[in-house]
Design a protein that fits this description.
mainly alpha; 8 helices
């Protein structure tokens, strides 16, 4: 079969496809870095950007959550390792408990918060729930690194948690479509899910490590 002499109609499609395949990964990384900065200065604008970009949960885990949580867990293990030596845990085990436990807790919380939204006449996908949780955790991740330098800086963790709650609350309307009069209740239950999931899973891993060390 003879191809048409003028193949210009095919050129734009091929060029566009090559452009998207080449730049999609880079753009995602740059967008996430930019959004992290906006979360501290313009949270509303940051959530709008996140909503429009429609990140998948795999993108958020791979390019944002895992790298940031890895650094945060190392810092936490370094600080808490000195406090948990009497309980028989070394810093490697504390790192695994913090890192792996947090990832699993966030994944489970994403499913639970997605299922919770319709009960508050809202809607949201699992991808949006993971984005909401992961990006809201930004100040906590960064604060844990700073606070690990010295014990006197632990107050930063408390400030970061408070700001995390504020960012989370600001992200609920856009990400989960919760009506204004139900946002507070949704926030309270969602935060309880987040912290209880992380506490229970960390306790589970800690119990396993304790049995191994026995």
């Amino acid at each position: 079969m003879q191809l048409p002499a003028n193949n210009s109609t095919f050129a734009p499609s091929i060029k566009t496809l090559a452009f998207n395949n080449t730049n999609n990964l880079t753009l995602n990384i740059n967008d996430i870095i930019k959004i992290q900065g906006m979360l501290f200065s313009q949270p509303d604008k940051a959530w709008l950007e996140i909503k429009q970009n429609q990140y998948s949960w795999k993108q958020v885990f791979t390019y944002y959550l895992i790298p940031l949580l890895f650094i945060s867990s190392l810092a936490s293990a370094f600080f808490m390792g000195r406090q948990f030596e009497e309980l028989g845990f070394d810093w490697n085990q504390i790192f695994l408990i913090t890192f792996v436990g947090s990832l699993i807790a966030i994944y489970i919380s994403g499913h639970l918060i997605t299922a919770l939204a319709p009960r508050f006449t809202g809607s949201g996908t699992f991808d949006e729930s993971i984005s909401l949780i992961a990006f809201a955790y930004s100040p906590v991740f960064l604060a844990s690194v700073i606070a690990s330098v010295h014990e006197t800086l632990q107050i930063i963790n408390l400030i970061a948690i408070i700001y995390m709650l504020y960012i989370f609350f600001k992200g609920i309307p856009g990400m989960m479509n919760i009506p204004v009069h139900k946002q507070l209740g949704f926030t309270i239950i969602s935060v309880m899910i987040l912290f209880l999931s992380r506490l229970m899973i960390s306790a589970f891993f800690a119990a396993i490590m304790a049995v191994i060390n026995a």
